Amino acid sequence: FGLAVLPHKPENISCIFYYRCNLTCTWSPEKEANDTWYTVKRTYLYGSENDTCKSENRASCSFFYPNVTNPDICTIEVEAQNTDGIVKSSMTQWNLDNIVKTEPPEIYCVKPALGVKRMVQIKWRRPRLAPISSVLKYTLQFRTVNSAKWLEVNFTREDISIIQTYDLTGLQAFTEYVLTLRCAAEESRFWSEWSQEKTGTTEEQA
Amino acid sequence: FSHTLRIPRPDAKDQQKIIKELQQLSKELLELYQKSEKGLPESTKYTLPCLTSDPHPPNNINSSAILAYFQEIRRHIDNKGVTDEIIGQLKKLKSQDTWKIKVSVPTESFECKCFVLTILQQFSKCMDQVNEPQRPKGQLR
């Protein structure tokens, strides 16, 4: 008779929440020698409801809208099963506001402020995956076109309007700048990717 | 489910976030319903309970009554996603020991649509009202 080879205990569980889309969890090991079925058990609505997600030979599973809403505190437990038996992960707890990730903001306009020297105004769209109830933190990176050195400024926005603006001051006059922006929900550990770079030029010194 | 972790109910900050999400969702669902059911008159025959006598959030919102209304009108609304989102958020605010109230929805089709529209309109106003910054006592509206 053959030696029983249980699946490895699922570990390093990591979850990311995409607002009004899904909650996706991954774990290790990514691969097992034998066919392995996973059952991810979740509680949500602050522990008052529960559901499961199943995957086969893939160390990842997603729970979908509308049963994923923030704010919420979920628990996640992963059960790995093969023909020789079942192994459970330890119980993990997730505050969705700490693991929400948005798409990058979209800068659509960088222009000098008329009559105001050494300043440009940046306009961008608030990311769709940014929760309505979240304050957003931003990092704006900028450099002159002929420099490789990025400078950066951080700020927050509580306002939920789709169009957002920021006045970047203290620049050199009549100079072209490259800018890029990223954001995150204030309590989240996940930043968005950087936005596409945009250029803009400050006004001429009179 | 083998569970050792006891999850606390939403704290004040999360309750405020839930209300912000509900405010946005209430507008979205009302807009969607008005688009799909054009020309429905507003009705004054129906009233959605909004606030309780308890001034302190979240008990000031009659979330269990509102939840009962949404669970009843759910099958009369095409957009199940936003409706289920609202139901989920209301469940978070609802305290555990509340009675489930009985909601009767008109059976006649047109009257039923007027009922649903009225509930969605009143819910949107209710969320705006709840979300208004707390006015110092004595200051008139």
From TrEMBL, chain B:
One of its GO terms (cellular component) is extracellular space. Residues 12-39 form a coiled coil. Keywords: Coiled coil. One of its GO terms (molecular function) is cytokine receptor binding. The keyword Coiled coil applies. It comes from the Eukaryota. The keyword Lipoprotein does not apply. This is Interleukin-31. It comes from Trichechus manatus latirostris. The chain holds residues 38 to 178 of 197 of the full protein.
